[in-house]
Amino acid sequence: MDLFDDVRLRMNSGAWIRTIWVVPLWMTMMVSTGLGQEWAKRMFDQTSHDFGTVARGAKVEHRFTLENIYEEDVHIVSVSSTCGCASSEFPTQNLKTWDKAQIVARVDTRGYYGRKDASLKVSFDKPFRAEVQLHIHTYIRRDVVVQPGVVQFGTVRQGTSSRKKVSVDYAGRSDWRIQRVECANPHLQAQVVQKPGVPGQVGYELLVTVSDTAPAGYIRDQLTLVTNDFDSHKARVPVPVEGVVVATLSVHPPSWSASMEVGQSLSKRFVVKGAEPFSVVSATCRDERLKCTVLGRTQQLYLITVDFAAGATPETLNETIFIETDLGGKQVLEVPVRIQVTPQGTTTF
């Protein structure tokens, strides 16, 4: 049984996964003879990506994720491309154990056409010198132009809808058509409206809407224009969609987990923020031992402290703090609370 056999067996316990797998890289190199530079490649979730067929002017980028699975720090020296059609953005800081980073690969769809294959060479100098090749492939259409190259929503307030428009133009067959628009995100709706006829061109306006049901968070999605192209490889044209939905109300931290000994007291401060002026109507908890106090406010921010005094008996407290506001018909924020009360002399965590 070698080191990795032992690691795999002990990983079956589940709880050991994040502990046992972190082995010194020098030990990995000793066990796996002929490993060479494979240690660096093992950190990447993938080393190749095919963008497929894209329109001229479309924003085309992909994020390659790497995670330092070793005990030693890892450092990226540089990332270079074999083709002028491709560029990259990469982190320069050290990656400590379990740190993650992303190398963003971009393709220039304005200055290049046709089939483009490029490689990004990622160079490391710590803990050992190594290189990893990341491969990207794409076919850039000359006859289809998307302007702007991405449906960019910017910031959208949660609970509201927003619509953006991009232009899709085709130079070629007079009977070329966009038959439908596909999207996996249920909070995005899209439709196409054909422009008045221009000799030698077919044009559409692509109208995209973020619905008022969209949850807070980033939008990084893709619409697919399904056309009647004779070539099946060109019949589907991707259009990226980006933006961020900002919560009307948020509380930080979103939860409270603590450990304390019997007889001790704890205090926690929470910040409630709003996208517009609001008022906190009340801050309460079913367990009256959790005492909530509103400290102060601005038009869009409140400070709330929660105090708890443990009794003489060990226990586990699972409760919820309810913060009621006057925004949107008395919107209520819920903050989960878990407090472990242990006997005196017990090590806390």
Proportion of residues in extended strands: over 45%
CATH topology value of the largest domain: Immunoglobulin-like
* Largest β-sheet summary: 7 strands, mixed
Task: Indicate the radius of gyration in whole angstroms.
Answer: 27 Å
**3D shape:** flat
Oligomer category: single chain
Quick check: average pLDDT?
85
In the predicted model, the low-confidence regions spanning at least 5 consecutive residues are: 1-21, 30-34
What is the highest CATH level, the class of the largest domain? Mainly Beta
Helices and strands, in order, run as HHHHEEEEEEEEEEEEEEEEEEEEEE
Please state the structural category: mainly beta
Please tally the β strands and state the result. Answer: 22
* CATH A-level architecture of the largest domain: Sandwich
The tally of structural domains comes to: 3
Count of discrete alpha- or pi-helical segments spanning 4 or more residues: 4
**How far do the termini sit from each other?**
36 Å
Describe the fold and architecture.
The protein is mainly beta and 349 residues long. The protein has three domains: 36-142, Immunoglobulins (Immunoglobulin-like, Sandwich); 148-246, Immunoglobulins (Immunoglobulin-like), CATH 2.60.40; 249-342, Immunoglobulins (Immunoglobulin-like, Sandwich). 7% of the residues lie in helices and 55% in strands. The chain has helices at residues 3-11, 17-20, 25-31, 38-41; strands spanning 48-56, 60-67, 75-81, 86-89, 100-107, 114-126, 130-147, 151-157, 162-171, 178-182, 188-194, 201-210, 217-227, 236-246, 249-252, 256-261, 265-274, 280-285, 291-297, 301-309, 315-325, 332-342. Strands 1, 3, 6, 7, 9, 11 and 12 form a seven-stranded mixed sheet that branches. A four-stranded mixed sheet has the order 8-14-13-10, with no helix packed on it. A four-stranded antiparallel sheet has the order 15-17-20-19, with no helix packed on it. The relative contact order is 0.11. The model is unreliable at 1-21 and 30-34 (pLDDT under 50).
